[in-house]
Amino acid sequence: MPPPCCTDTSASAAVHDPVGTVTQYATRDLIGPIAYKGYDPLNDPGWATTGAPTPALYARWCRHLCGIACLRMVLLHRDGHAPDLFTLLTGARNAGAYVREPDGTIKGLIYAPFVEYTAHTHRLPAAVHGDLDLEGLVALLDAGHMVMASVFKEIRRPEHEPERRGGHLVLAIGRRGGQIIFRNPSGHTDAARKPATSLDRFGAFFGARGISLDPRHTVRRTPDPTAGRRPVASRPTTEQGEPRCMPCP
After folding, report:
1. What mean pLDDT do residues 46-53 have?
2. Which InterPro entries match (predicted)?
3. pLDDT at residue 1, rounded to an integer
4. Stretch 71-92: mean pLDDT
5. 12-213 CATH
6. Three-class SS state of 207
């Protein structure tokens, strides 16, 4: 049964609730050490809870799972259950949302095939927003959408000035007054995993792109997964505006 915030599709939404935080790393207490102290995720004792078949595969992919963690949060909110991270990752990879380069580099999340995957497999309406300003983000939230927003990874420490914008996906679940309410898959503290940040401060980290998802509706007709594929990666913005995928944290 969908939560009350998703049952009245005629009303504008405030904040989707409840939305539990799913982290891209298996052990939450290790996110800080992984991000700031050089801890090797290969040694994460909770690796199997992600559905990874081996510790090595978990360590290889965990830095790239922010978007997958966001998707799992939406599915848990809508359905009360969801596949584990690596099952979702396998589906997204099969759809072309991640690409392994010959040198082993992982490119992704690639937005367009990911959106096709959410619709085709999970019947979850989604749309790519390759040019999304703060006003547009707020409009989507006010219309009842959740938004996977591309931000700089250090949004978990908003008191620090960001080096760039974009490159890491968080799940914006609504707006309350002048604040964006979101869930951060790589938050290193409880507060960093479910923050409320002012519009201006969020904008300092926001890469002006994202994916909107609408858990209040269901895709009734399966789209052609290969139609109109146009990859848009979660990428930071450099001074030259060059696209460049980066793992997080």
Report:
1. 98
2. Peptidase_C39-like (IPR039564)
3. 67
4. 98
5. 3.90.70.10
6. strand
Distance in angstroms (rounded) separating the CA atoms of residues 152 and 182: 14
DSSP string, 111-165: HHHHHHHHHHHH---EEEESS--HHHHHHHHHTT-EEEEEE-GGGGSTTSPPSSB
Q: Is residue 115 within 8 Å of residue 219, measured between CB atoms?
A: no
> CB neighbours of 190 closer than 8 A, spacing ≥ 6?
none
Residues 29/17/24/247 CA torsion (nearest 10 deg): -120
SS3 108: strand
Instruction: Quickly tell me which residue has 């300003």 as its tokens.
Output: 133
Copy the structure tokens of residue 9.
């599709």
Q: Give backbone dihedrals phi and psi of 181, rounded to 5 degrees, phi first.
A: -100, 125
Helix 111-122 vs helix 85-94: angle between axes, to the nearest 10 degrees? Answer: 110
Residue 59's CB is within 10 A of a number of other CB atoms, namely 17
Q: Calculate the average pLDDT of the chain.
A: 89
Give the pLDDT band (50/70/90) at residue 187. Answer: very high
